[in-house]
Amino acid sequence: EVIGFRDGYKWLAQGDTTHVAPLGINDVTGIFQRGGSVLGTARKNPAKSEADMQRVDAVIRGRLASDVVLVSQVAEYIIGGGGKRLRPALTLLASGAAGVPPAGPGGGPQHELAAVVEFIHTATLLHDDVVDDSGLRRGRKTANAAFGNAAAVLVGDFLYSRAFQMMLTAGSMR
Fold this sequence. Notes:
single chain; three-stranded antiparallel β-sheet; two-stranded antiparallel sheet; 58% helix; elongated
């Protein structure tokens, strides 16, 4: 059983023994095929995975701040709708596998960049819903159905712009 990932290696538990082996793409896809959570694979410390995702959510909410009331309303509506947050989870997994040092209590660049990935994904969904004239997403009104096409496009553009601002402040081109 894979119990964790770090620096391109996986930790395997077999009874009371732990082994280390190189990480492969089949390890990640196998987790999804079994219906598991990538970040939840470290079963001995699931609280760390949850804490990482809470940090990403905090970054998302903090970076959504805008002086434009409509942008704040639509952005909160979208983020409040939930979602799997698969892309940020994969970003955090990749950062751990690449050897990015663990973040302090306030989070780190990996949490900021995980939020960037979520912003870009959400912006594409907003624009796509306008183009497709979609009315529902996950059983809930889409932003364009709730606020109109212009507002949905505006917030999609805002999310793209904010994502690029966040990338620039990450302090690393890697």
